[in-house]
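2 proteins. here.
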Amino acid sequence: MATRKYQAQKFESNSMVKAVDALTIEEALQININNKPFTVSMRTPGDDISLVRGLLHSEGIVKNAKFNPDLVLKKENEDGIVTVVSLIIPKEELGEGYSNSRSLLSVSSCGICGRTELGELSFLGKTIDDKKKIDINLLNGLFEKMNDQQHSFHQSGGTHAAAAFTLEGELLSAMEDIGRHNAVDKVIGKLILSGKLNKASVLTVSGRVSYEIVIKCFKAGIPFLAAVSAPSSLAVDYAKELGITLFAFCRDERATCYSHPERTKNNHSKNLDTKAS
């Protein structure tokens, strides 16, 4: 249940008509760790287990990707939407992300917004050293596959999507959410839970790319990141630093590579956009 219908009035020129629109649901999910509130994530309900497991990995709350803590869906509202999840994580499995200062609310637009400071950057100095190359002609087909899975977006126009693929273009996971970073966390969480994280080589996202999505991609060990829209300057800086090949403006059979273009196949380099988008 990713959408909810609302009555509306639509105005055009001098006319007004009544309408019923499907809008993307945004609901709070409180995450408790070891019987204490840790954060509240504003997200689109559905795939909550994948969302939480991906967040635990991306935020460095759980150190070991192979450790999957028991997750209890504790409370539902009158619409049957889960509002509270609880996890018990042994102290020896907790990472530095658990102790980082974080305010209770983490909004759907930007996962960093729930923090009281930027957070730990201990991963700097590390890099993804992947020698494999990607065929630029593959990118358009990946976005078509992701688009085919955007069922909520086709109803409401209000969700973002993320998807993970092998280097050969096999779809491993595709998720939607009102928040871009939530969709990424859901994908990563699903990969961990299904034991397919090590097969993922390409992450695609709808919309723009922030530095936070680059970091999530890095922590998942995925060397290629591609987006429909623009990257931020910090996203490009981090992609260069962390060894991620970053593509943006991937639409209309075009793509602009902003970092590590040596991982693109040279015989297809003519398809890259060389002008500023």
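next one coming up
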Amino acid sequence: MVEAAAFWDKTAEKYAKAPIKDMAAYEATLARVRAHLTPETEALEIGCGTGTTALKLAGAAKYITASDISAEMIAIAQGKAASEGVLNVDFLKATLDDHPFTEEQFGAVMAFNLLHLIEDIEGALRRVHGLLKPGGLFISKTACLGDRMVLFRLLLPVMQAFGRAPYVRFFKTAELDGMIEAAGFELIETGYYPEKARARFVVARKR
């Protein structure tokens, strides 16, 4: 399997050009995220990709630090921020294991379409918990693939062997919710955007 950072570096330019598949669902997600941010919120987005979401949320927060494992993704995101004149979003290459952040630094940590791409989700959630201030929010949207996509699951190992797909973890919605709660969070809002794709939106408060 191709190492994750190398895979996303290779696909960054194509990823940046790909259109959002369901704009209505994307806008609904953004609206729900904005409802939980304030002008005082200092937020972190992990797995920010080419930065579109962080830049769209910039007006709802005091400051957003957006990170990704891919240097190529971050370079594209920085270019977008410069061209759009957004000054309260900072993009940097970092992971949850290798970063400059301090414990209890952020009022919110966000992860969109990311958790199913992480092998050690449980460990990642614990690290997110540590980065949040007391009562801080973890806001995420995750593809829960455990109930469907049987053909994709069969094809995935072949695609990975040829460097055409990253690591993907299959789990059900209840498993995702349970992992988030086990990491020390209380679920305060859940939903699906879009409903048919079972993309699980979760807002969870640090206990």
